Amino acid sequence: MLFLDRDGVIIEDRQYIRDPAEVAIISGSHETIQRFRDAGFRIVIISNQSGIGRGYYGWDEALAVQARVQELAAQDGIIYDCVVLCPHHPEKGKGEFNKICNWRKPGAGMLTFALEKFDVDLRQSILVGDKRSDIEAGIAAGVGRLIHVATGHGQAERSRVKEFESDYKIEFADCLGDVEL
Ligand SMILES: [Mg+2]
Fold this sequence. Notes:
The chain is of the alpha/beta class. It has a single domain (2-178), classed as 3-Layer(aba) Sandwich (Rossmann fold). It contains six helices and six strands, in the order E-H-E-H-H-E-H-E-H-E-H-E. The protein has helices at 29-38, 50-53, 59-75, 109-117, 132-141, 154-162; strands spanning 2-4, 43-48, 82-86, 126-129, 145-149, 170-173. It has a six-stranded parallel beta sheet with strand order 3-2-1-4-5-6. Helix 5 links the parallel strand 4 and strand 5. The chain is globular, with a radius of gyration of 15 Å. The structure holds magnesium ion.
């Protein structure tokens, strides 16, 4: 299974994106995803969307943005096997969205949910993310291959990701387009 963070990995990170018109695919992303699909990987998006919980936008807007992501993917022949979004935030969430949720990365919940749907080998799975919390979620779930990209928040977070290197093998790439099988 190929676990992909969305904002800052597949699409440009617009900070709490709520308008489908702002969805912009990062160059090379779809080509890499297609390579993994051709190799038999399930492709899964795991995305913290605390903008919902914070009240910046609603589920309708979040799902419209996600629909645009999938529309652009389909134009390049890509279908995602599973998309998991988490709306919660432990401090900034409003009302029912204010909770400590293991689905929210760095928790492993979204990955575990997707893994239960498909019979895949976790050690053969890959996670690509731009934030330290993405990598932490991959570690928590036991994903075999962890890749940090420099797009999105990647440049700013890289030094904090490198702190994991003493205990875990982390790979570094400029962008998803540069990730190899
Ligand atoms: Mg991201």
